[in-house]
Amino acid sequence: MFNKPMPKILLNSEKKLLEAAKEIIEKEGVDNLSMKRLAQQTDMAVGTIYNYFPDKNAILIRIVTEDWHALENTLLASYGDLKTFSEGIRLLYDRFLRFSQTLQPIFSSFTSHGNATYYASYSSFIEEGAKLLEALANHFSLSFIASRYPLAAAMFSYAIHYPDTPYEEIEAAILRILGEPIQS
Where in the chain is the domain with CATH 1.10.357? Predict the structure, then answer.
């Protein structure tokens, strides 16, 4: 049988590509990000870029994913500084809004270039937000019905889409959705 040669993988190329993609998005807008533009920015061949990312959406999803993981790590590390569960809800609210605002051009691109990517990112946001909310509750030795965490986390998404909603209404809705803590 014929052995197909493996594509040439350059050290740190993936990181270099992501940094260049972020720079293009910041300076020129997400619509100007393309494999060709990325090749120009990084002095890599377009074919080499395809060894790392199959398309522009994959790059955008990777940027969002990496930024989300950084946010998660920061949030989990900061839970120890919180005094109350409500203070933690406020922290999640503030950070989720900032995250959304920072990546708004990418999210807008998802919605304008196909709903499948948007819905996948939205679903992931709710799932990951639910995990962070549950970790927050666990930090304060609280436990709620597991199926309620995603619905409560959806209130953060509501706040992102309707930024004029007062924070107090968002927090009250989250607490109503979670209900009374379960006694162990």
Answer: 55-178
Is 100:156 a contact under the CB 8 Å cutoff? no
What is the pTM assigned to this prediction?
A: 0.82
Q: What's the pLDDT score for residue 103? A: 85
Q: Is the pLDDT of residue 12 over 60?
A: yes
Q: Which CATH number fits domain 10-54: 3.40.190.10, 1.10.10.60, 1.20.120.1200, 1.50.10.100?
A: 1.10.10.60
Average confidence (pLDDT) over 70-76: 95
Q: Which two tokens stand for residue 123?
A: 């679903």
The pLDDT mean for the chain works out to 89
Per the CB < 8 A criterion, the answer to whether 51 and 97 are in contact is: no
Question: Can you give the pLDDT at residue 134?
Answer: 97
Fold of 55-178: Tetracycline Repressor; domain 2 (1.10.357)
Amino acid 9: pLDDT: 53
3-state SS string for 108-174: HHHHHCCHHHHHHHHHHHHHHHHHHHHHHHHHCCCCCCCCHHHHHHHHHHHHHHCCCCCHHHHHHHH
